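G., before I forget:
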Amino acid sequence: MAYVRKDAGTLTATEKRRFVRALLEVKRRGEYDEFVRMHLAYYSSDGERGLRTAHMAPSFLPWHRRFLLDLETALRRVDSAVTLPYWDWTRDRTATVAPWTEDLLGGNGRRSDQQVMTGPFAYGQGNWTIAVGVTDGGFLTRDLGRRRDPIELPTTSDLERALKDPVYDVAPWDSTVTRGFRNRLEGWSTGRGSASWRNHNRVHRWVGGAMLGAASVNDPAFWLHHAFVDLQWYRWQRRHGGARYLPAKPPGRGDEQHRRIVARHEKLPPWDVTPDELEDIGRIYRYA
Ligand code: CU
Ligand code: CU
């Protein structure tokens, strides 16, 4: 039976408590920091040679889908009733509502050093010391809404601009493409200033602090954000009659992207799985 991922804004007190408890246990076991390391290891960009899998590439969506499944599996080993909640940032748009409450992710960082002081992941609680990918402090940081230079979360119509595109991705399959669902959702753009961060990328900017860089997994908000991104892929498939992942075939030898992206039936490192095998997850989980 498929399990259900719920909207973070609808979780009961018990569901929140069990989700938090499972996350803290995965952290205590040392498994959580392995996820942070893995995301760091796969944070390559357009300019680099070699295969890009997690970002700035078609496999942005299947890579994170599998990454989320791995974390969710670790959580469910601790408590089999737990599933990843998602944060609908088109609806929950301020720093005082879900998921930023004391009983879920805790709130904003303080002004002086952006340190998160409330909730289960506050450094002072002693259960969430950041060990990987930070230079100072070991404490979780956030700057919700970017107080010095405020930005807004993406809106429903921003998201709609991605969802309405009937093509999954287009050549040259990187951060420069202006068409295709994948990059319209991932959110690289040539616009100026804050307009250059769209949908997925813009949410990382809005949260700020730990969520800004390659070690963004250090903030548990990463998972709730990416679960909502994953839900958009499902919605997009439904809207466009089961439209498929692209490219279907690997770019040929003369192509600049030859061996630099993952085609539909190629293995998606570091796993032994293809984008094709990750397109339909209906037997594993569904979204409420
Ligand atoms: Cu990522
Ligand atoms: Cu992300």
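Residues 200, 204, 226 surround copper (II) ion (ligand 2) (CB under 6 Å). The two ends are 15 Å apart (CA to CA).

More on Monday.
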